[in-house]
Amino acid sequence: MTRTPVIRTGAVDVISDWALDQPRPTDFVDPYFFISHRGLSEITFVSPSVEKVLGYAPNAMAGRSYESFLCQGDPLNDDVAECQHADLSGGGSLHTLRCVRDATGNPRILSVYTVGIAQHEGGPIVRRHHLARDVTESVRRHMQRIQQLESLEHAASQMTDQERAVAERIMQGKMNRVIGRELDISDRTVERRRAAIMKHFHATTLAELISKLAQLELLREWTKTDADTQWKTARNADQVSALAV
């Protein structure tokens, strides 16, 4: 087991400057990469995994401000100044989303967990350690599904109660005659209501309508069970809606 270098100063064990920049075992959870910085934003150490995630050589990042990697003007970065001054003593932490540019200039969304590091217990915070994970694709999929769900929910909201009753039976695979008998309406009325439903959903065929009705139910269920969205617990996750992902 690797021991953390310390400097003994009287009764207090002070962690060496080199050790302050090194990740602790509890800092790493694959596939996160690790960043240490001092002051407001001066990067002092980056784990090699950043090259695989964002394409930057870790040594080239050291000494630079992490703000230089942020996408300027992006709403996910609006609270950077506030977070820089947040008190992380006593085990405080932050979970934020940041929009950064990778080595090719493309914007990427990171889910970042930040903790403060002191040289000795109860001492001032001298480093901030960040665990970052690229969640761009998760955010993109989530937003696409949300947009699809909102569009289908809008279409569903246009249906009358009578049309909704017909739509439910269409989803059950029932023919017009059976639907008419169950609802005590004529086949012609069923056809008229089905045509109205298709218009609400911009469907040109019955198969397309059934597909959209099924998609609506699946997306409703997805919002209850989607597990790959831990980034939604970030303090600024509501700003994701403003992104063109």
Question: Any descriptors?
Answer:
245 residues, alpha+beta, five-stranded antiparallel β-sheet, two-stranded antiparallel ribbon, 7 strands, elongated, disordered N terminus
What do you see in this structure?
The chain is of the alpha+beta class and 245 residues long. The chain has 9 helices and 7 strands, in the order ββαββαααβββααααα. Helix 5 crosses helix 9 and helix 7 packs across helix 8. The radius of gyration is 27 Å and the shape is elongated. It has a 5-stranded antiparallel β-sheet with strand order 4-3-7-6-5. It has a two-stranded antiparallel sheet with strand order 1-2. The longest helix has 22 residues, at 136-157. Helix content is 38%, strand content 20%. Mean pLDDT is 85; it is low at 1-12.
- Pick out the low-confidence regions: 1-12
Number of E-type strands: 7
Task: Provide the gyration radius in Å.
Answer: 27 Å
Largest sheet: 5 strands, antiparallel
What is the structural class? alpha+beta
Instruction: Estimate percent helicity.
Output: 25-40%
Question: What gross morphology would you assign?
Answer: elongated
Rounded mean pLDDT is 85
How are the strands of the biggest sheet laid out side by side?
Answer: 4-3-7-6-5
Number of helices: 9
H/E series, N to C?
EEHEEHHHEEEHHHHH
